[in-house]
Design a protein that fits this description.
With 295 residues, the chain is mainly beta. 0% of the residues lie in helices and 45% in strands. It is built from no helices and 28 strands. The strands form 8 sheets. Strands 24, 25, 26, 27 and 28 form a 5-stranded antiparallel beta sheet that branches. Strands 1-2-7-8 form a 4-stranded antiparallel beta sheet, with no helix packed on it. It is globular, with a radius of gyration of 20 Å.
């Protein structure tokens, strides 16, 4: 999910085995598993959903980001029966409602993240193999690497060891020209925020960011144990907004949603929190959040 202007785009993904039941209308629908090429857009001003041109290559677990009014997608998985990524990339022009194929990356890559930085598109981490995508191998594992796409030169450049771990990152965001991360796909919140040092090609812990998401609010410690079911972040100005959801203990299913904010420009006391919200039922977050500017 990404945004351009006042419009939110939901792109690709996969169907899971799920049965939707509406007891009031006696309605049952079974969602068959499959990879999606659909692109939906939500006009926040008109409060309407509509369909865009579909992806050229259906995919899920792919990198996606926006730059200069276009949406870029790269890598991902194209079938459900293969644990291998693709090198295919494409860009969407919302004015023309068209997807344009881009040059292939040098790696087959999925579960990577996309972020615009320094005028280029970075596809970072993921499960990656370097080699000829038309052959069955041999391959060289390049999980901690990245590739950057230059829209002006229309080519990809390989970057070794840009991500510290073999485990793919959960999210990487750009705040005033600096890259930040808070976790990986196995642990979306590692207990602190990290910033990328491009000169040393390493990630450093941000001073004052060590407060765990689950205990930022002083009242949280008084609550019974709870299970975090999602955590995602989005940048607004110099601040990082964290949206975290928890499954609360008890016989009744209750989801607790918390929003915490870290000011990357603060020298001390960078964290603040909003009043949490508790709702009956269980929520499912299938993508990261995004930010859009309303005029």
């Amino acid at each position: 999910m990404v945004s351009i202007g006042e419009t939110i785009y939901v792109i690709g993904g996969r169907h899971c085995n799920k049965v939707i039941v509406d007891t009031d209308d006696n309605y049952v629908k079974e969602m068959s598993p499959g990879v999606r090429d659909e692109v939906l857009k939500y006009d926040t001003r008109a409060d309407t959903w509509s369909t865009c041109a579909p992806l050229t290559t259906p995919r899920y677990n792919f990198a996606c980001t926006c730059n200069d009014g276009k949406i870029y997608v790269a890598g991902g998985q194209t079938t459900l029966d293969s644990a291998e990524g693709t090198s295919f990339a494409e860009a969407y022009d919302p004015v023309k409602d068209e997807w344009e194929p881009l040059p292939n990356m040098s790696t087959l890559r999925y579960k990577s993240v996309g972020v615009p930085w320094q005028g280029k598109i970075y596809v970072v981490g993921g499960f990656a193999k370097r080699g000829n995508c038309e052959s069955q191998g041999p391959y060289v594992m390049e999980r901690s690497s990245a590739e950057l796409y230059d829209p002006r030169q229309q080519n990809w450049e390989y970057v070794a060891r840009m991500w510290d771990l073999d485990v793919p990152p959960n999210q990487i965001v750009n705040v005033n020209g600096k890259l930040f991360s808070s976790g990986d796909c196995l642990n979306a919140w590692k207990g602190h925020i990290e910033a990328y040092d491009e000169n040393l090609n390493i990630w450093n812990i941000v001073d004052g960011s060590n407060s765990p998401i689950s205990t930022l609010d002083a009242t949280v410690a008084k609550l019974p144990p709870k299970q975090r079911i999602f955590c995602t972040m989005a940048p607004i100005g110099t601040q990082l907004y964290f949206l975290a959801g928890y499954r609360m203990p008890g016989e009744i299913s209750i989801t607790r949603t918390e929003v915490h904010v870290f000011d990357t420009s603060a020298t001390a006391n960078g964290w603040r929190s909003f009043e949490p919200i508790e709702e009956e039922g269980e929520k499912e977050l299938c993508c990261h959040c995004c930010v859009l500017k309303m005029d």
